[in-house]
Amino acid sequence: MSTFSRPRRAFWGDLRFLIGIALVGVSITGVWLIVSSADSATPILQADRTIIQGEAITAADFRVVDVSLGALTDDYLQPQDLESGQVAARTIAEGELVPHTASGRADDSRSTTLVIESSISIPEGVDAGTVVELWQAPLLEDGRTHDAPRILVADAIVAEVLDSEGMLSASRSAVEIVVDRAAVADVLAAISGGAALSVVPVGAGS
């Protein structure tokens, strides 16, 4: 009576089996990483509007978004980080994730706002958050003519362009600007001295 031995499985068959196991493992690992990444998302504050430097900030100015920032998470404001008396340390653009460096205490703020009347109309595109230069043309001793224009404040920020209704001339506009407190005295002196003030967007080639 003849005895038949079972044929051995080919090596390539074992290799395909091992490759299949490896692919299943990779797939499981990928799913785990995706789930882990979603679980590690952190609620971060995102500006709901443009917030001007020096402006008080509250929860109403932000929406909360879940973001995975990894090691950078602690650099950004979370809902629990908001406190009363906080202001924007710089202009925060609408839609921007807010870093801690963009907020500060009102007591520490070095900026304030002033309303000035521009001797020229405010250019189109200048609105809240626009960085501008404030130019002055000092009034000469005759009280009728002005000296050559010069920069008074090189980096003011527009807080609001005000309604020009009621101005003496259609070519004149009022604007609220944010300036460093160190520049306040110079601006007020220019206003009281009758200087012609003009707001010019930075980079306008003035």
Automatic annotation (TrEMBL):
Highest rank taxon of the organism: Bacteria
Keyword field: Membrane, Transmembrane, Transmembrane helix
Transmembrane segments: 15-35
The organism of origin for this protein: Microbacterium galbinum
Residue intervals of the SAF domain: 45-98
InterPro entries hit by this protein: SAF
Entry protein name: SAF domain-containing protein
Any matching Pfam family: SAF
